[in-house]
Amino acid sequence: MFTQKINRVLTGICLFILPHFAFSSGFIENNSLTSGGANYAQQGKIIPPGEINTAAYISAGNYQYPQAESNVEIHTYPRVRSPDGGVKEGFLHIGIKGQDRQFSELAPMNLVFVVDVSQSMQKEGRLEWVKEALIKFTEKVRSVDSLALVSFNEKAEIRFAAALIETGENRQGFLTAVNSLSAAGVTDLEAGLTLGYEQSKINYRPDGINAVLLLSDGTDLSARLVREQAMSGDIRISLSWSNRNDLDLHVVTPLGEEIYFNRMRDSTGGIQDVDMNVDGESSEPVENIFWGKDMARSGDYRVYVQNYSYFEDNENPTPFQVEVKNGDDYKIFEGRISGTGRSSNTDAGVFTFGDTNQVSSLFQLAENYRAQGITIAAFGVGVDFDPELIQNLALRGGGHSRFLNDREKTMVTFSSDEEFKRIAVITARGLELKVDFMPGIEIAETWGYNYKIENNSVSYQLPVLNMGEDKIILIHYRVLPPASNPGAALKLSAGDSAGNPAVLYDGVIGLGETSAAEQALSMARQSETRMRIAGAFTGAGERYYRTGGDRLSALRSAAGMAAAGQNEIQTARGERNDPRLFNDEYNLLARYLETINGELPAEDPIESLIAANTISPVSPRQVTVTVIPGIPNVQNGRTYTLQVGSYQIVNNAQDAHRRLQNAGFTPAYEQFNGYTRVVIPNVRSAEAAAIINRIGAAGFYTIWVREVW
After folding, report:
1. Share of the chain above pLDDT 70, in %
2. pTM of the prediction?
């Protein structure tokens, strides 16, 4: 007998940046932490930590660099904390900016537009947005430029063969081809892209701009996954069918655990987040199981489908489709299922995760043409596409992605010279930045692009820099005694037209003290604040999804991290005298706290934390300290323990203990669940605010306050 099936609702789960099916924009494009994220928090979902793209979020700041006078320019903004005693800590903000030019000054362009004309492009008038935007764009195309137009649904078709727009006849021919586009059928993205790349070879310009511009709203499956706010990660397995029968997706993991409707999580982080047709509610159902970034166990995964029950009037076989995203490889299995229960089990195949570098043929196509000098700009139209696919396609094809969720944005993208250049016009390829810190400086962490740290040096690889585009890098470092007058040597190089590296910048910068120029402090502080906010989301997710151990402690710790993020925002608001700063992020963290509170016992003190975390730290202009749950009331006469840190590695705890001693404190150790806490005990409420500021001055920026009963 099968377990009775009940209506299942899974709360507390959200995929962020890469939400992969959730957002019409986000870290992938605008780098906004909350673009679409608030909708998920409203439904009580927490972002898995592996999906927080801190580097992209840091890049979202409006840093307002001066216009680049040369092809590529570099801007550096250091900020160093100089506490009395202890180790100095600093942040180096590096901005790389591409030169902007007038549209008329661009090199000759060889552009191929590859447009999705499947049935779904009729939704909301999406195809009409695209047609209107392309017509507007054609007005600025010059006689030295070449255009082509390819459409695709279940088949690809050349609508306007690649040709120079040097005559009125050719220009009108392209416009006529655009106007003739109409939507019908299903989507074969690879067929369209293959034909588009073939057209791009016809008028290839070795010294020009060669690009394929893909515009698609995705597939029927991606539309269903978006509708149900499904999630993705290193592994995503999705089942779709087209009737009201209750099909179920089952996955057996390398550990022999099985994920399905009655066991929606495994011990390694696999989650079934979408389960449909429990009551035969939809004729367009989908089910989804995923492992977030860095969560999947290596080994073999077996996928099968079962028909739990019929809701259709007949019991005919049900066709279905299973799509497996295995790293960067996509596979589709199509089958038919008959009967119900175990007798209906239909295998959809076995795949291996972790021991191969398989890449889908679509990505291979983009990589091959990138090597030939032809890039891709990928545009997701509407909200039904797979952002992860769009982003990775652009990344592997040496280009950028954008999400066009309405007519206005579609028009601006193609009518604005600046926006088009940032998407499609490359100003430098193969950039490499190397930062060599002087002896006595230790790199704590860095964010931004592919990097490699060796001792006190770090190098970054940036495939392309587009015209007018900014690239942001942030380095957190420590200045170890007895180092003085700290500095760093920076060298930036990029490939020239022949592919040979050319040095663009080679110099030494002083890292300075807090007396550095106000602009430098503002730049570094803004990126530092963004780093800490993203860290709060990551930390909350890590604790929320932690397997094993004390679940209540994990939830309280997750709430503490969310509160820490809110306190960081409050501090930034005080520093900039802007009470609305980071408002979306603040509200999203408030939703986190509500979600976590809903999973705790009614008598748990989490509600007091939610109420208290809005208290701003004392003297935010002097030192930034996140206080959880908040600074005690000076008049309550109680005694508190101030927890400065909690460490798995004993040496780190000893280092923190020593730094506090050097700053004049008398710290102590506590042991908890295998962690070594470093605390300052017996602090009276009247003294707490001043002591917290002294702790911050010693270089500790997050403090947990526990009342001593």
Report:
1. 84
2. 0.70
